[in-house]
Amino acid sequence: MAKQSLVAAEQRRRRLVERYAERRIALKDVIRTAEPGSVAHAAAVRALSRLPRDSSPVRLRNRDQVDGRPRGYLRKTGTSRIRFRELAHRGELPGIRKASW
């Protein structure tokens, strides 16, 4: 089980990413299209750097939906490897079967 403070911090980061997503996309578009060294380019870079650090999607971390564990995350189920094994053994994951050959 992950610390609740870390899970809460991750949720806060997700909200910040959602809030600043449109602004960040617009600024990055200006930076991409403007002539490097121009006034518009420099202003867009400054504005982008003034946005909160946690509003960048790169800072998000995938966590287990059940207990918030950050390591061993499986995208297909949204759980960690430990939780995946427990749920699979109980038959609570549709389409997942134990391998046998």
In short:
The chain is mainly α. The chain is built from 3 helices and 2 strands; from the N terminus they run ααββα.
N→C terminal distance:
34 Å
* Contiguous runs where pLDDT drops below 50 for at least 5 residues: none
SSE series: HHEEH
Largest sheet: 2 strands, antiparallel
How are the strands ordered across the major sheet?
1-2
Kindly estimate the percentage of residues that lie in beta strands according to DSSP.
Answer: under 5%
Count of helices? Answer: 3
Description:
With 101 residues, the chain is mainly alpha-helical. It is 51% helix and 4% strand. It has a two-stranded antiparallel sheet. Helix 1 packs antiparallel against helix 2. The model has no long low-confidence stretch (mean pLDDT 94).
Offer a few descriptive terms.
101 residues; two-stranded antiparallel ribbon; 2 strands; 51% helix; elongated
How are the SSEs placed, and which strands pair?
Elements: H1 4-33, H2 39-50, E1 73-74, E2 79-80, H3 81-90
Antiparallel strand pairs: 1-2
